[in-house]
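Page 42, continued from yesterday. The earlier attempt failed because a stray header line got pasted into the input along with the sequence. Redoing it now with the clean sequence only.
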Amino acid sequence: MNFRFPPVLLTSCVIVSDYSVNLKDKDFRIGLTLQSIAKWLEIVPDLRLVICDGSNFDFSVIVRERFPCASIESVFFQNDVQKVEIYGKGYGEGEIVNYAIAHSVYLRESEYFAKCTAKLWVDNFPDCVAGWNGRCLLKGYFADVFSFNPTRFEYVDTRFYIVSKAFYMKYFSTVYLNVDSDHGVSLEHCFRDVIEKYGLKNILFNVPAVICGVGGGSGTYYKNNLKRRIKESIRLRLAKRQSLYKLLF
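This time it went through. Structure tokens are written below.
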């Protein structure tokens, strides 16, 4: 069956194991995930969504009642709670994506998928998919773009990306094992390290993904007003001009 868009994997953890996050209330987290689903379906009404929850929470009944005509798959399992407590939420995120790839019917039927943290959505998702290169598209963050200091590829924004299953399994499926939040090693840094280690090229979005919603870690809404969007567009344009980084795009 030919679909216009890849399925979107929403990584969820209704019952938190990483207690450093600000947003801990179970019902609030569920409500924000449902809000995210509604937004995704506004953007692409026939989109296939996969909710994978790492705290054994089954969304199937709730989403069937709330979105009876939508194509939404719910898979769930229990993260390694002890390791998530020790290493942080990035460790749990890696487990969730791997579990979804192994157990989701929608992901099994597609060569590639988009991943987005539950409680978030991407306003310009169609524009992001339009740049699909057959391998992987990530959102890189570059520091010191607007200063006289050298621009630095700081990290990969792992809240949202598009990737083929084969590419993910080859390069990113085990990076979460290196996460250590107590020592400042996040999943975002681990993704960047893989790109640099293997010299991966043409792997970053050419358009800034407009990510909206509530961050589970911070518990605050992301403000993507026009001023911020213009700034992000300029930041991306300046980073692409850097000889050290232009091959990443």
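Notes: The chain has a mean pLDDT of 93.
Reminder to self: strip header lines before submitting.
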